[in-house]
Amino acid sequence: MDSKIVLNVAKEEGRSRLKESYHNAPYKLTHYGAAGLTDHLEMIIMSASPGIMDSDYLHIDVHVKEDAQLKLFTQSFNKLHPMKTGAKQHTDVRVGLGGIIHYIPHPVTPFKDSIFKATNHIHLAEDAVLIWGDIISAGRIHMKEAFEFDRLHTQTKIFRDGKLSFIDNQLMNPKNQPIQKMLFFEGYTHQATFLFSSLFAKELKQELDEILTVEYSDISYGFTQASTDVVVLRALGTDGELLYDFLHMLGQLCWDFTLHKLSEGKDGPQAGQIASVEKDQEEATAVTDKITSRKRRRKMARVKEEEELNYA
In which band, very low, low, confident or very high, does the pLDDT at 277 lie, cut at 50, 70 and 90? Predict the structure, then answer.
């Protein structure tokens, strides 16, 4: 099935407004929460399908016009069913001068024998801002299908002012790659990628050097400045929802940092910078607490299970 999603956003009277939208089955594009509640626009992609089937093709076309701001969400995990020929997804994003886009979808879960290729072409104006993420799962872990998919290929290209700024190209073929070993998943079951592209990427990297100092036992991550305007973070973990929360924490951090930079001249740099750092540290602490809470619940579940086995 061929499907398409179109979304155009423009700024009017100080607010980002939906100017054009289109979707066809099985997808639906709608407001995320109450429309007009924020100055930026929040939309969510929903689907009535149980997942992506063989020969499916989805084209997503997003245009964020000058000074407009968009946060795009997804409804649930993207499930890739068993296939013979494969499925494809292509995303075109254009962000005008002064525009911001934030898009961190739910994890992709490839079933056994699935074949999938996802390409993202992102065209940014000279001072546009991109906050982007994706998460790949090893498969249906509890169904004993870890790394049983056939082929998974993802490619993301970022163009700024018409010139290629960054490319991320990943091809996963478990049957022909030592995918669970060094330089691949290294014993983990989920991989996350986070991208921040902006003219002040270097300043954001300096903020992350101060904020991301916590070591998580369930997440291993590293980040670097990949080009003058791109910061990339790669993370490995064993819980898709946990990595999703982690990326959204980073996304909100970058969103707040971007708004701070845009308003820095109005409020004064020193006061704004202190407030921004404090808020970012609070976000990082919240994620740490969430990770700790989940670990505690898992431990209690294991203890209860062992007690029931001993009692039996």
Answer: very low
Give the separation between CA 16 and CA 245, rounded to whole angstroms: 25
Asked if the model's pLDDT at residue 276 lies above 50, the reply is: no
List C-alpha distances in Å: 133 to 153, 166, 198, 229.
15, 14, 15, 16
Helix (H), strand (E) at residue 293: helix 269-311
**Three-class DSSP labels, 61-118:** EEEECCCCEEEEEECCCEEECCCCCCEEEEEEEEECCCCEEEECCCCEEECCCCEEEE
pLDDT above 70 (res 307): no
pLDDT one-digit tens code per residue, 105-154: 999 999 999 999 999 999 999 999 999 999 999 999 989 999 999 999 99
Residue 20, beta-bridge partner list: 8
* In a domain? residue 268: no
Q: Would you say residue 176 lies in a domain?
A: yes
- Domain-embedded: residue 279: no
As a whole number of angstroms, the distance between CA 258 and CA 269 comes to 13
| pTM, 2 dp | 0.86
**Full residue range of the structural domain in which residue 213 is found:** 2-259
Give CA–CA dist 15/88, Å, rounded.
Answer: 34
Residue among 251, 246, 141 nearest 188 (CA):
141
